[in-house]
Amino acid sequence: MIFYLLAIVLGFALLVWSADRFVDGAASTAKHLGMPSLLIGILIVGFGTSAPEMVVSAIAAYEGNPGLALGNAIGSNIVNIALILGITAIVAPIAVNSKIVKKEIPLLLLIVLFTGYLLLDNTLTLFEGVILLAGFFALVLWSVFAAFRSRGDSFEDQMDIELNEDIMSLKVGIMWLVFGLILLIASSRLLVWGAVGVANSFGVSDLIIGLTIVALGTSLPELAASVMAARKGEHDIAIGNVVGSNMFNLLAVIGIAVIIAPMNSIPLEVLQRDWTIMLLLTIALFVMAYGFKGRNGRINRVEGTILILCYAAYNTYLGMSLV
């Protein structure tokens, strides 16, 4: 048991560090190759922070643990909205100004609803995995199109500042990109081994481990990125990072895992409990980010506290269901 726990702790530490190096290297390389700052923010920073979820879920699916793969993806989305945006809003209330981000949130809601539709029969087939992955590539194309049509957006201004703060050479950027990816894969393998070992030792399903421990650990890069951005006043980066990550998790992370290992018997509670919580949190994000009745889009400290309490209540319920 002690080796499994050490593997989880070490795996998390290396995962967070390698994901940060991977995203920094990718962003720097893209900047040197002339990619617009807005596109870097949407594709590399927004989606790149979900690299841990993708690698962990892919490895879990390949090794015959589909529950961990699916739990990691859905659980990470719950963590991103309830815990990460909650903590970020308490650190610094988040004002939503970017038109790009405001377009992405309704799109995220549609993706959540579509994922729920696919889960109605409690299976995810190879064909459905292909559809999800095709949806991700369509999202990338839309992001490119939106980036070139939205020059001057506040999200672009904030990304310019962020990218110019820590400039590295092209050679160093490529080095961190490659090394970060290698270490990301290795640390993910270590984490999956530890998580499955703990699940087997305690007699807990790999789905629950994926929804809780693994989802929290793989979401740490998003937490660090969003809190740091909010403290710098880069609010659109803080929330855009979470929205982009959540879309990536549902389309690419689940899609790749299902293509590797189709899921023929998904527990009913995934749709009734976990997907429903994810949907309600996404709706709450939509309401808070847009603002209604003359209220500007903003996630304040009170709302951030409510989000954290929701996360605590959800995990408490999961814990009680095991008793």
Automatic annotation (TrEMBL):
Boundaries of every Sodium/calcium exchanger membrane region domain copy:
4-144, 174-317
Q: Kindly list the GO molecular function terms attached to this UniProt entry.
A: calcium channel activity; calcium, potassium:sodium antiporter activity
Fetch the Gene3D superfamilies from UniProt.
NCX, central ion-binding region
Q: Which GO terms describe its cellular component?
A: plasma membrane
- Which GO BP terms apply? intracellular calcium ion homeostasis
Q: Does the keyword Ribonucleoprotein apply?
A: no
What domain of life? Bacteria
Which topology term describes how it sits in the membrane? Answer: Multi-pass membrane protein
Sorted alphabetically, which keywords does the UniProt record give? Membrane, Transmembrane, Transmembrane helix
The residue stretches assigned to a coiled coil in this entry are none
Give me the segments passing through the membrane: 78-96, 126-148, 168-187, 207-230, 242-263, 275-292, 304-322
Q: What is its main location?
A: membrane
Give compartment(s): Membrane
Pfam families named among the record's database cross-references = Na_Ca_ex
Instruction: List, alphabetically, the PANTHER family matched.
Output: INNER MEMBRANE PROTEIN YRBG (PTHR10846:SF8), SODIUM/POTASSIUM/CALCIUM EXCHANGER (PTHR10846)
- Name used for this protein in its record: Calcium/sodium antiporter
